[in-house]
Amino acid sequence: MATLNDVTSADRVHIGFFGVRNAGKSSLINAVTGQDLAVVSNVAGTTTDPVRKAMELLPAGPVLIVDTPGIDDEGELGEMRVRKARRVLDSTDVAVLAVDGTRGVTQAERELVALFAEKQIPYVVALTKCDIASAEDHHHVARELGMTEDQGRLVATSSQTGQGIHELKETIAELAKEPTAEHRIVGDLLEVGDVLVLVCPIDESAPKGRLILPQQNTIRDIIDEGAMALVVQHGELAQALSKLGAPPRMVITDSQVFGQVASIVPDSVPLTSFSILMARHRGTLDAQVDGANELDRMRERYEADPNTPPPHILIAEACTHHRQCNDIGTVQLPRMVGEYTGLTPSFDFVSGNEFPEDLSAYDLVLHCGGCMVNDREMNWRARHAASQGVPLTNYGVAIAKMKGILDRSLAPLY
Question: What is the number of structural domains in the chain?
Fold first, then answer.
């Protein structure tokens, strides 16, 4: 039976702990979690890189705790640590700022609070060492940070005595409450009793004993709507369709077999992919369709001027799975892009939490579906690329484009 600890990091609330060096941040994390997750030391700068820990934090439930380096670190190495700490904000659902209640507010702390507001991140300021700080110290901190009643929360805490820790956890849980989702995966397109066929190939890169996250979430969304999901591999698709008494409401496929599936499914049956549904779910589908159209624009620029430099493409994956000999990101996609455009692009590859700050060298970002990062992180990557004028699309949208079935794949969604 699945437990709360089986929840993937992408589906957990990301709680980032921030603070200047020696503000009591690590002691606070240990007090909140009831575990020795963070190294406590009087030496400034003990936390050198963001440290992530998936756990259950009552009453919030499954969460990902992120301990960040001090945001006032110094020197060249310190600046790198600060950049990493600030980068954590792009995937943070709730921010906790540890402020030493016995000393004045720093400029770094003011800047962080301003960033929380700018990025619309719910936050709580945890005043540490409240057992030795005065009430006037607390009021002073709130004034210095420019906090108002409707912006952020303030909780006085003591990691030594436990004072305020329960209140802090309750506040985190309240801020972590998920808003009503603006976008469903597919359920809003269905009616009770609809039958959908899901094509889920099982290969060496598939998680042992389970389906990948977009497939799991799509199945859940279907059954929540009172519809039915028939799950098959592409080799059994034709047989499955023939055994149905009526055509299915829709066929949803893994992008790797998009071409084979499209050749089997009659044109009269709606067809799309998990990757396209995930882009729709996150509200980035239109931008990703435009990103896929960049493949045509690359070819057109070269045809207009053969001296145009070959395109430079970033292929980004949010996970760090073991690469197979015919890996989709490093092998299949580069080959397909070259064949589709008739060009010889150069490719860079990143994975996991790494995503370049400077994307100006790239003509296009080809990104995986992003199922292993949360919505805030994936949407930040899309906005980050757009802010630098670099088109971004995901594997499924790009593959549909290159297979000539993008319009067909989008039709069921509008």
Answer: 2
